[in-house]
């Protein structure tokens, strides 16, 4: 698939992000998207072909692979990247709506269409909450689907039509586990960044209003 659209989306979001948000964009773009394209995709490319069981029973190997890998790691990672980046579209759409509204009324309605205030601030906060929720959901999904964050060298399969318990071997388990740990670490980092940005925005604007009121009283 082409990742050009996702790159354009992240570049567009970068214009309206806070400093923490720009760090999040950099982490997603460099440590997740580029690592996925450059390395991870190739490691899991032939995972089904390289999955071997010590039996020649027709259908047994395919059933065992589907049992232990109901969804491919790399496809789930790709889906995670897309879903986690999607809430950022809300911010881009809101800014576009403001720009079109100004054109329609042919007058200046906002200080700047991309300035985080009022409705756009709410949209930005919602996008942060959604991104954090999706990150957590995918981490739980990874853990449940693969029985933990690990890639074993050997798995024992007794699913029909296998006549008995057979040994199946996963190719390059150490390499795959390193990238899986990297995935988990970057997801956790993105969760921390999202929560930090959320806290910063929630406390920043009420504090600004309080200081303005306090200064007016003194004046």
From TrEMBL:
Membrane topology: Multi-pass membrane protein
A molecular-function term among this protein's GO annotations: gap junction channel activity
GO biological process: one example: cell-cell signaling
Record domain Connexin cysteine-rich: where: 134-201
Record's keyword annotation contains Cell membrane: yes
A GO cellular component entry from the record: connexin complex
Pfam families: Connexin
Subcellular location: Cell junction, Gap junction; Cell membrane
Keywords annotated in UniProt: Cell junction, Cell membrane, Gap junction, Membrane, Transmembrane, Transmembrane helix
Bilayer-crossing regions: 20-39, 77-97, 118-143, 178-203
Ranges of residues in domain Connexin N-terminal: 42-75
Family: Belongs to the connexin family.
Assembly and binders: A connexon is composed of a hexamer of connexins.
Role of this protein: One gap junction consists of a cluster of closely packed pairs of transmembrane channels, the connexons, through which materials of low MW diffuse from one cell to a neighboring cell.
Matching PANTHER family: CONNEXIN, GAP JUNCTION BETA-7 PROTEIN
Protein name (record): Gap junction protein
Species this chain originates from: Ceuthmochares aereus
Gene: Gjb7
């Amino acid at each position: 698939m082409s990742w050009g659209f996702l790159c354009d989306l992240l570049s567009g979001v970068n214009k309206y992000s806070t400093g923490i948000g720009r760090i999040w964009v950099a982490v997603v773009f460099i440590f997740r998207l580029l690592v996925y394209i450059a390395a991870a995709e190739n490691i899991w490319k032939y995972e089904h072909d390289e999955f071997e069981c010590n039996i020649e029973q027709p259908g047994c190997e395919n059933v065992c692979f589907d049992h232990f890998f109901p969804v491919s790691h790399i496809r789930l990672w790709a889906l995670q990247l897309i879903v986690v980046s999607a809430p950022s579209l809300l911010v881009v759409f809101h800014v576009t709506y403001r720009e079109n509204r100004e054109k329609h009324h042919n007058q200046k309605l906002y200080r700047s269409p991309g300035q985080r205030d009022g409705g756009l601030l709410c949209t930005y906060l919602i996008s942060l909450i959604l991104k954090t929720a999706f990150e957590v959901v995918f981490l739980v999904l990874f853990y449940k689907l693969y029985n933990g964050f690990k890639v074993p060298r050997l798995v024992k399969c007794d699913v029909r039509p296998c006549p008995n318990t057979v040994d199946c071997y996963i190719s390059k388990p150490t390499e795959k586990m390193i990238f899986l740990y990297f995935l988990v670490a970057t997801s956790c980092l993105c969760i921390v960044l999202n929560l930090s940005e959320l806290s910063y925005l929630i406390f920043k604007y009420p504090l600004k209003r309080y200081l303005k009121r306090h200064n007016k009283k003194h004046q």
